[in-house]
């Protein structure tokens, strides 16, 4: 057994574990993906101990369960080690590694532990793939290769979900153009052929009948190819397409296309055979007999071909294997989540500069922070002390930015250049996407690709659809443009959040409240602060906000130097609950925060020139899973006593420590 164990990770395969197609060969295998955080380069040994046979795979850069052979660095199937994987590998400090632990047989459950030994300290954290489900025509089709065209052969993995066609890659645009050209040319050819061979003069022999049928089949073939291409494109662009539609396309479109292709091929074979017989018999060739045979073949051939492909209709299924559920990034916390009140500094002024404002953490625990001193955006892995990328451009003093799921960054450049720019992760270039009159103190992109900008100097939130061709097409999302405390007014808005219903939450800093502007309504509802119905907390210039999956609020209470959140008993303090200061359990004018994949809270501690990480105590929720949290507006009616809610955090922490 290896010695000098540096990391241990116990877990289990259950019926709730993620499934994938192991090696593109073994279906429905439970798996768990773990990111290996390497702090020093060296030779490491990784092995498992389990009551079931395990396989181990190490990927470099990324792991996609729908492409299990891509980025594969090393693997072991447990042979010669009692059915437990064992990997010896050289791991580099600046590289990203993902360990995938899975089972030998499908649908096998059991406990397992992963151990790592080596010369230096390492850690294992849960890893979430960017893919969330398998869509027909997407990469999962690579597991069911057959004769004929597949969508993967045409487009591979260049399609980008939730991105309009005009913003897709050049190869997709070219493919779309070529598909349309093929359809038009094929349709013209089929129509002209049909016009020629429909006349009796062209049907003196069986060839004419074959070619007439072939012209009809050719038109059906190019039509089905057109349908198949656009089915993939549209279902990828609109990821909310219903499963029934995806399943219908999976089980019918490609099979029908195959029938058309095979039928057209066999009709051409029949033409060739008849011509050969005609040449062989010469004047003795019987035209009437050839026409009679042709009619029977044209009638019977579709049934014969369909019968050879009947297994396609029966066994072709839509892959719907879900990857590891992203519970934390969607905000599915338990009713009263708890964070360690003592923070850890993960970045200081040498990395993020003075007075860091905006922070963003994606589901793979990549941290984005704007360095105002250098005029850059610094990107690094949460578990690494070294930045992995520094983005610089022609932007001045960005007050905010927003990172989309495809890695594009929307950057405020209103202070100096009166605009918002988008940095493309694909091309590493900037482009203007919005004109503004001042800095955007909050940026947000909703699920419909609508960009929101909150302007504290103009007491207003503007928005524009990123799908609009005209950049100047800004609309008012909230506020009148005149400072005030009315329900339709704002006073120095900062952080914003738009939910799936297009309801907009705005931190109204100088009014010391959070306003909810329901979609299409100009008047807001105060959901946090003194002026809310039966208030449960006092805010002093809120600047950052996050909404969880059950519509519970997490707010940066800037001038009270803390982060607060709503729960079963109204609002309560979560971190920074010990007053202003520079100690590890204190904050000094925090501005924004973000959750990583594990639920840890990452905060910009502005006046302390640092980024603080507060660990999420997931074990504190074990006894709370059956509690039902109440919506925020109902929760405010439960505890009108603000002092009572302020004491909740102390009681919970005492219980946890005890």
TrEMBL record:
Locate the transmembrane regions by residue number. 174-197, 209-233, 296-315
- In the UniProt record, does the keyword Ribonucleoprotein occur? no
Q: Which CDD domains match?
A: NHL
On the tree of life, the source organism's domain of life is Eukaryota
Q: Which GO terms describe its molecular function?
A: zinc ion binding
**Keyword Iron-sulfur (UniProt):** no
Recite the UniProt keywords alphabetically. Membrane, Repeat, Transmembrane, Transmembrane helix
Sorted alphabetically, which SUPFAM superfamilies does this protein's record hold? NHL repeat
Q: Which InterPro entries match?
A: 6-blade_b-propeller_TolB-like, NHL_repeat, TRIM-NHL_E3_ligases
Q: Where are the NHL repeats?
A: 481-520
Question: What is this protein identified as?
Answer: Uncharacterized protein
